[in-house]
Amino acid sequence: MKLYAWRPNDIADLTSADFLAKVDWKQLDYLVMDAGEARASCLSDRRYNEMLATYRRYVREWRDKGEAVDESNF
Q: What does the alpha-carbon distance between residue 74 and residue 57 come to, in Å, rounded to a whole number?
């Protein structure tokens, strides 16, 4: 998952207008937050927590401002 690495090429991919127009934010939120998804496949809690912090920042900065953001997971 590119949110784990967050290198310059990953940032460019995940913030491109084309990608942002297609991303299913609800599905992405499920994949990141659900205990049976990203957390279950992560090698350590530290790496998961780092990715989670990156994801939260990503949502705040790049999610469509017109779409309601559920910040209860933040």
A: 10
Place of tokens 């279950």: 40
Residue range of the domain that includes 15: 2-62
Chain centroid offset of residue 38 CA:
10
Q: Using CA atoms, how far apart are residues 66 and 4, in angstroms rounded to an integer?
A: 26
Q: Indicate the pTM of the whole model.
A: 0.79
Predicted confidence (pLDDT) at residue 69 exceeds the cutoff of 50 = no
Q: How many domains does the chain have?
A: 1
- What's 2-47 look like in SS3? HHHHCCHHHHHHHCCHHHHHHCCHHHHHHHHHCCCCHHHHCCCHHH
